[in-house]
Design a protein that fits this description.
Layout (H helix, E strand, L loop, with lengths): L2 E4 L1 H8 L8 H12 L4 E5 L2 H12 L4 H11 L2 E3 L3 H13 L4 H13 L2 E4 L2 H7 L5 E3 L9
Parallel strand pairs: 1-2, 1-4, 2-3, 4-5
Length: 143
């Protein structure tokens, strides 16, 4: 099964009001592909913290419910391994990207999947490394 690594910019679009998040329709396609076992999702352990930070600050009245729903969704977490750490550090050395963003990209590389992000700037900076695609360019695999 194909592995996808959605980052916080994509996962937030699953929970936040669609009018608050451009590209929510594409993000929901990905969420549905995960839910329907068309693809397998893996995220670095920092994912819940990134999503939680944004939700708790922007929508505190909904934070508990939305984060509980995300936890029930059961995203698989990437363990911190020597290979994962090597990939994440290499990405930050080669490209002008944060370790946070590189964590998702490294997860995709280690898992043999693709990092899906709404951060067009990241895609432009690190596309040459492979294993990364813009949310707008991602399409569910054909069955």
């Amino acid at each position: 099964m194909r592995v996808v690594v959605p980052d916080a910019s994509v996962i937030l679009k699953w929970a936040l009001p669609p009018d608050a998040e451009p590209g929510a329709d594409r993000a929901l396609l990905l969420r549905n592909a995960i839910r329907d076992d068309v693809v397998r999702a893996v995220v670095p352990s920092l994912c819940l913290f990134e999503v939680g930070n944004t939700v708790a600050r922007r929508f505190p009245q909904h934070a508990r419910a939305w984060l509980a729903a995300l936890a029930k969704f059961g995203l698989e977490e990437q363990a911190i391994t020597a290979q994962w750490l090597r990939e994440a550090v290499e990405l930050t050395e080669r490209y002008p990207v944060s370790f946070y963003d590189a964590a998702y990209h490294a997860t995709a590389i280690v898992q043999g999947g693709v990092f899906v992000t709404a951060d067009e700037r990241y895609v432009a900076q690190a596309a040459l490394h492979g294993a990364v695609v813009s949310l707008q360019e991602w399409a569910p695999p054909r069955r």
